[in-house]
Design brief:
Elements (H helix, E strand, L loop, with lengths): L9 H15 L7 H38 L1 H37 L16 H8 L4 H20 L4 H10 L5 E2 L5 E2 L1 H6 L4 H28 L10 E8 L12 E8 L6 E4 L2 E2 L1 E3 L2 E3 L8 E12 L6 E12 L13 E3 L4 E4 L10 E6 L1 E6 L2 E6 L5 E10 L2 E4 L3 E6 L5 E3 L6 E3 L1 H4 L6 E3 L10 E11 L2 E7 L6 H8 L6 E10 L5 E3 L3 E5 L1
Parallel strand pairs: 11-18, 20-26
Antiparallel strand pairs: 1-2, 3-4, 5-6, 5-9, 7-8, 9-10, 12-15, 13-16, 14-15, 16-17, 16-18, 19-21, 22-23, 22-24, 24-25, 24-26
Helix pairs in contact: 1-2, 2-3, 2-8, 3-5, 3-8, 4-5
Length: about 525
């Protein structure tokens, strides 16, 4: 903002100095460099104007919020500020129309204030603003600026500093030169100067319109008694995002001074229940009966100090309930087995499972519900699990966990009902073939017998027949039927297919027909 109500920024001072310098040079012959300088000043003024417009929009939002909270207090000023905005917009757009009219008359309708060619034209501005229709256009612009100034001065009546600043900012008076000859305001801005200079001067008028608007809006806003609520207590307060912080994360808290009135404490309600209030704070205590993310809305109400009407303010709170847990890690038993889905339950206290990212080397991970299944790679000797998470918006990486990878142990060869020794003849003739079972193992693993030999003594010689499946061949079954009680026989060279696809030979089953 500018004027006496607000100090000028360094940028505004620079533009003002450039404006004065260029105005003093208008009587000189216009060179290309000077025209470019006028163009540069014009762009700088437009940029400064845009910054002022951003500040004005913020001020209007502040006004709107204040009016929404307390229309009885702010309503009159809010209505006035809307009129200020309308008046400023109307004059700003009128000046824009003058600029484009000059460009259209000089270069044609396909050009505008941001793109024109006749920058050195010293006749068009004076013709339109001072000659045609007896100079009606220039007088109309001068009149509109004067009306805008008088309107703003009426609002600022009583503030002599602001009224004086508006008189200077929006001055449209005639002057007297060194020879005591009267020089009109129109002549100062449009006579015997290139079009580029007139465009810069018109842009400066638009900037002045916005600066005057800013000063008056600020004046109106400062006239509102924002300290409607009276406080008699101030207390230091720390509000932490979380009291649970993981190593590598960050503890974050807002440290502030909280003001409250202990003679008029707010009424605080959550889910229809009024809370006990101490020192301006509602005490909210709720049992953590179920796990998960929880959200609640609190309504705080306090009487308006002017109207007595209850004002309501809502705030949303969130917290997460987690199950109590303990981690017991078998340091020497971190193991995985090839060919199997090794289930892993992965969690981090204080972090939602949805915020965890799990990756691995040496194995492939698949997720089923809350469980990760790790299947080791064929040739890997160890697998490394990496877990990362997000805590209060910040990524954190946890220490890696390493697992040794083992081959599934050899199973025990069996015939149904026995794993060696005596087998009744009646049972023997009903057996389909040998099996391979893994006893006392943490996984329920199925093995496929792919081949085996049956050896029986016949006529003093060992006779061996081979099956390339898990079942006795017809020829092997005939051999079993001919075995006499007390006679020995062997199931040997039993080859088994493991879960990882490899095969291995097991021990020999030594049996006696009973």
């Amino acid at each position: 903002m500018s004027g006496g109500n607000c100090p000028e920024t360094p940028r505004q001072k620079m533009i003002g100095m450039m404006y004065m310098m260029l105005t003093a040079m208008l009587a000189l012959n216009v060179s290309g460099d000077l025209l470019n300088a006028f163009d540069l000043v014009d762009k700088s003024i437009k940029s400064s104007t845009k910054n002022t417009e951003v500040k004005n929009r913020t001020a209007y939002v502040d006004f709107e919020n204040a009016n929404a909270q307390n229309p009885a207090k702010v309503g009159e000023a809010f209505a006035t500020v809307q009129k200020v905005k309308q008046a400023a917009d109307d004059l700003y757009e009128y000046v824009r129309g003058v600029k484009n009219e000059l460009v259209h008359r000089a270069d044609g309708p396909e050009f505008d204030e941001d793109n024109y060619q006749s920058k050195s034209n010293q006749d068009i501005a004076a013709t339109v603003m001072m000659v045609e229709n007896g100079g009606a256009k220039g007088e109309e612009l001068r009149s509109k600026i004067g009306e805008y100034k008088d309107f703003l001065k009426g609002i600022a009546d009583g503030n002599d500093v602001l009224v004086g600043a508006l008189d200077v900012m929006l001055a449209t008076k005639d002057t007297v030169d060194a020879d005591k000859v009267k020089v009109s305001w129109q002549s100062q801005n449009f006579e015997h100067i290139p079009l580029a200079a007139s465009m810069a001067l018109l842009s400066n008028m638009q900037s002045t319109v916005r600066n005057a608007e800013a000063d008056v809006v600020q004046y109106l806003y400062s006239s509102i008694d924002k300290a409607s609520f009276k406080f008699n207590k101030i207390e230091p307060l720390i509000i932490a995002k979380s009291s649970y912080v993981l190593q590598g994360g960050s503890y974050e808290a807002d440290i502030m001074l909280a003001a409250y009135d202990d003679t008029m404490e707010p009424v605080v309600n959550v889910a229809g229940s009024e809370l006990r209030v101490e020192a301006g704070r509602g005490k909210y205590v709720v049992p953590a009966s179920s796990v998960g993310q929880k959200k609640y809305t609190a309504d705080l109400s306090i009487p308006d100090p002017v109207s007595g009407e209850m004002l309501h303010y809502n705030v949303v709170g969130e917290y997460e309930v987690a199950q109590p847990m303990v981690t017991v890690a078998p340091v020497k038993m971190n193991a995985m087995y090839r060919g199997l889905d090794n289930p892993l339950e992965i969690s981090a206290p204080g972090i939602s499972p949805s915020d965890l990212k799990v990756s691995a080397t040496g194995c492939t991970l698949t997720k089923q519900g809350a469980i990760y299944n790790a299947r080791p790679n064929k040739d890997s000797k160890e697998a490394v699990i990496t877990v990362a998470g997000t805590v209060n918006g910040k990524a954190i990486r946890f220490p890696q966990k390493t697992f040794r990878i083992y081959r599934v142990p050899n199973p025990t060869p069996k015939l149904p009902g026995t794993k060696g020794g005596r087998i009744p003849k009646a049972q023997l003739v009903t057996v389909n073939g040998p099996r391979a079972e893994l006893e006392d193992f943490v996984f329920d693993v199925k093995f496929e017998v792919v081949s085996f030999d049956l050896t029986v003594k016949q006529g003093g010689f060992d006779v061996t027949k081979t099956s390339n499946s898990s079942k006795f061949t017809p020829e092997q079954k005939q051999m079993l039927q001919k075995i006499n009680r007390g006679q020995k026989f062997w199931v040997e060279n039993i080859k088994v297919k493991f879960p990882d696809g490899s095969t291995n030979s097991l021990g020999t089953l030594s049996l006696i027909c009973d």
